[in-house]
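Review form for a predicted model. The reviewer records the input and the model, then writes brief findings.
Reviewer: anonymous (R2)
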Amino acid sequence: MKYSRPADIEKRSFEIIKSEMKTEPAEDIAPVLMRVIHTTADFDYEQNLVFSEGAVQAAMDAFDKGAVIVTDTNMALSGINKGALAKLHLEAVCYMANLEIAAEAKSRGITRAAASMEKASRITGKPLIFAIGNAPTALIRLADLIEEGAVDPALVIGVPVGFVNVVESKERMIKTAKNHIIARGRKGGSNVAAAIVNALMYEKIDPDRNK
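Model under review:
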């Protein structure tokens, strides 16, 4: 095969993506957008993925302060590059499998995703980046917590996939979170959430990788 090394395949993939994109995104968001397309092979994200002004820089600043990345699924957590986390001295957590969270959610009649956001909101001392790729209830509860003043995320990545409350939860978060990266509409997923986190970390470590 012409391209056998992973790095060569990735580089060629990005060249193809760039050549087929119909838009020319701003320099700061282009690496994130291109990596999402690389992960999904879906060019709809050119239109669907929206960034608040300064969202990428907010992530860079949070990384400098040792951010904790909170996911709503273990799948998203698994997809986050552990080598990049280590290089940047960051931590990534997911509370969905936490037995205490499961018990609390059952007793209160709420989803584990919502209860997980409440637990994460109590993390102190470090900036929080939320990467939500599956549960709109996580995004909804997080919006509640932001509005209540219980948490002030450095960045919210809101890309849950599905049909029930998905679009509404994303539109609400666009209005609620100062710094956000949101996939409007029904598309998204844990792989997209992880791809965005990875793109941001790669940009911090080696900006040329995403180009």
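Findings: Residues 190-205 form the longest helix (16 residues).
Further findings: The chain is about 55% helix and 10% strand.
Recommendation: see findings above.
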